[in-house]
Design brief:
Elements (H helix, E strand, L loop, with lengths): L1 E6 L6 E3 L3 E4 L1 E5 L6 E3 L3 E10 L2 E2 L6 E16 L2 E2 L8 E10 L3 E3 L2 E2 L5 E3 L2 E4 L4 E2 L3 E2 L8 E3 L5 E3 L11 E6 L5 E3 L9 E3 L6 E4 L2 E4 L1
Parallel strand pairs: 1-4, 2-5, 3-6, 4-6, 5-8, 6-8, 7-9, 8-10, 8-11, 10-13, 10-14, 11-15, 12-16, 13-17, 14-18, 15-19, 17-19, 19-21
Antiparallel strand pairs: 20-23, 22-23
Length: 207
């Protein structure tokens, strides 16, 4: 997809079950059921916008239940997963979401207004997840990490770079959001007021 608009569809805008779908520009917006569903194959976002979807399902902007979603640039914004649904911007039930650029902001959900991760969530370079909330529109809820997962940090040319900003929270009892990483805590912030992300013994911990 190198331009144009996918909008006003019932059942979602784009469904990727196999093969490869690349979005370099254009807009996916206002589709009933969500913007993009990835259950297999690869969806790569190199630009453009996924915006303004409201659904009762988890994953208002992008739902990943298998396969790979890679975001290198572009914007995911203004998406809402209503009621008790999670992942207003991106919902990762399984599969892999790799974010090396672009911005996820202005999305809402019960948990993980920006990103809800229960699979693999990898970040690096200039990725930005900020300005997302719970369904009330005021309580910060950006990247929500479930009790059995961590954030994976890119290395080498994919390592965090100036401009990267990930606000996060976790359901883990130990409050660890990333394990066996370098001292990259400056690129992370805690959603909960009064908390910080610190580097301790190779781990990033919210405390």
């Amino acid at each position: 997809m190198s331009g144009g608009t996918i909008s006003g569809n019932t059942g979602g805008g784009v469904s990727v079950g196999s093969g490869t779908f690349t979005m370099s520009s254009g807009t996916i917006s206002g589709n009933s059921g969500g913007g993009v569903s990835v259950s297999g194959g690869t969806f790569t976002m190199d630009g453009g916008e996924i915006k303004n979807h409201t659904t009762t399902n988890s994953g208002g902007g992008v739902s990943v239940s298998g396969g790979t979603f890679t975001m290198n640039s572009g914007t995911i914004s203004g998406n809402t997963s209503s009621g008790t649904s999670n992942g207003g911007g991106v919902y990762v039930a399984s599969g892999t979401f790799t974010m090396y650029g672009g911005t996820i902001s202005g999305n809402k959900a019960a948990n993980g207004g920006g990103v809800y991760n229960n699979g693999t969530f990898r970040v690096g370079k200039t990725a930005k997840v900020s300005g997302n909330t719970k369904i009330d529109g005021t309580t910060r809820s950006n990247a929500y990490i479930t009790g059995s997962t961590y954030i994976t940090i890119g290395t080498g040319t994919n390592a965090p770079a100036p401009g990267m900003e990930i606000w996060a929270q976790t359901a883990r009892a130990d409050n660890v959001i990333a394990k066996d990483v370098g001292a990259v805590q400056a690129y992370f912030k805690a959603d909960e007021a009064g908390k910080l992300v610190v580097f301790d013994n190779g781990d990033l911990i919210i405390q």
